[in-house]
Amino acid sequence: MPRYSTLINIILFILTTLLALNIKMSAPKVSANDWLAAAKYRRSVYGLKNTSKVPDSRVQEIVQEVLSFAPSSYNTQPVRVTLVTGEKHTQFWDIVINTAEPILKAAGAAVWDKMSGILQSHKASYGSVVFWEDSAVTDEAKKTHASYAHLFESFGEHATGMNQILVWTALELEGLGANLQHMNGIPPVEEALKKFLDVPASYKLRAHLNYGDEPTAHNTAVPPKRPATETFKLDGLVSLMYMIDQ
């Protein structure tokens, strides 16, 4: 019996070692600090050029990679993306501007005077990553998970937001500048873009990420943020201190 016990222990030792080696080999090569530094590097960059040092094929690869792993509630995957570049991107912004102009002018001459220049600067960038939510997927999820049906609108926003920040960060790490826009705030713009990009009626425009070569050196300064004393609380602190005192 002792001989069998020794053999079992040896087998267990080998299996444990192999498992540990496998965990070590499969561990991510990027540390948490590296990942946070990459996320911190992302900025809203304006005045973008109509050129891109990064090939369209590489941008496509990044977007598809993000879509392959970005989370969504119940893995429903409602996010859809259209990549618009070059001349198509110029036409894209012509549609935005022409559709928005009468609405913005109706809000006042000062509004149009300010916004027209901003819209023209967006038009001058190289491309846009257009983020949609397929409402057909969201509606189906509401039926499948009825008890959470009232939350799936928010879940869809969460999913698109996570895709946006991942793509945005990746593009800036590739050396591009980018800024996130929400022209769906003017309802006729969304309908015009859906027609232009030939997407299904069930798609909802959530945002579009303009990108292109940066006009100046990348700004790494973090905009002022509220102090942690206002934004963070460690609920376990009191109980932890109690345990230490004991």
Automatic annotation (TrEMBL):
One GO MF term: oxidoreductase activity
Keyword set includes Nucleus: yes
GO BP terms, alphabetized: cellular response to oxidative stress
Residue stretches in coiled coil: none
Keyword terms of this UniProt record: Cytoplasm, Nucleus, Oxidoreductase, Signal
Endpoints of the signal sequence: 1-20
Family matches, as Pfam families: Nitroreductase (PF00881)
InterPro entries, sorted: Frm2/Hbn1, Nitroreductase, Nitroreductase-like
Localization (cell): Cytoplasm; Nucleus
Domain Nitroreductase as annotated: residue spans: 40-212
Major subcellular site: cytoplasm
GO cellular component terms listed in the entry, alphabetical order: cytoplasm; nucleus
Entry superkingdom: Eukaryota
Family the UniProt entry places it in: Belongs to the nitroreductase family.
Record's protein name: Nitroreductase family protein
Species in which this protein is naturally found: Cordyceps militaris (strain CM01)
Lineage of origin: Eukaryota, Fungi, Dikarya, Ascomycota, Pezizomycotina
